[in-house]
Write a structure and sequence with these properties.
This protein has about 220 residues and is of the alpha/beta class. It has 8 helices and 6 strands.
């Protein structure tokens, strides 16, 4: 199975735990999109006709910060260079604050058929601590908007092991996801990665990570 992964390195702000490559200061994405399309064309020359693509994944960073026109440019470059006749799944990572109904419908119309939604928690305290950009209201409403736009294949991300988080918060997060009838749930244990704000807080003794027994 051949797949294509595209890393979109833009974020509106830095999450406390994130060690992926990203930038928060670049407001124009034009030069990046142009360079990405050139890179797609370059790799298509050597790999494009070897095997048809079955999956495309837009990760990040925050791919949903890209304008619809930029995404169309990227898709055109992919279709021009690669065999997409067997394409089955096209996923885009999306943050709740980035999408309205028109944006979601545009994603659907260009061929994106799966969304990975970075909710992480349905509690304001957690979201503020993580330095997430969205609110609880946006976290809850994005699920309904996603369905209204025609997506029936999407996943929601939730993080467990947040320091000092009441145990009942995690149960409530899971219950909320169930009540929203989320078709797929991806849960991640909070990990302390080097070169992150969280790592610095742990080193200074400001934060004590959850122990393995608590995480289990």
């Amino acid at each position: 199975m051949a797949g294509l992964y595209l890393h979109i390195p833009f974020c509106s702000q830095r999450c406390v735990y994130c060690d992926f490559y990203f930038v928060t200061t670049q407001k124009s994405h034009t030069s990046f999109v142009q360079a990405l399309c050139q890179e797609i064309a370059h790799y298509a020359q050597t790999h494009g006709q070897r095997e048809s693509l079955e999956t495309i994944y837009f990760g990040g960073g925050t791919p949903s910060l890209l304008h619809i026109d930029d995404l169309y440019r990227i898709f055109n470059a992919i279709h021009d260079g690669f065999d997409t006749s067997d394409l089955q799944e096209v996923t885009l990572e999306l943050n709740p604050e980035d999408a309205n109904l028109d944006y979601l419908r545009s994603l659907r119309s260009m061929g994106i058929n799966r969304l990975s939604i970075g909710i992480q928690s349905f509690f304001e305290d957690d979201l503020r601590w993580m330095n997430r950009s969205h609110s609880v209201e946006q976290a809850e409403s994005i699920v309904g908007l996603t369905r209204k736009a025609g997506f029936d294949n999407f996943t929601v991300d939730l993080i467990f092991g947040v320091p000092d988080q009441p145990v009942e918060y995690w149960a409530a997060n899971l219950q909320k996801a169930v009540s929203l009838e989320v078709p797929h749930l991806s849960t991640y244990s909070l990990t302390v990665e080097e070169r992150t704000p969280l790592h610095k807080q742990v080193q200074r003794g400001i934060i004590t990570p959850s122990d393995d027994a608590t995480l289990a």
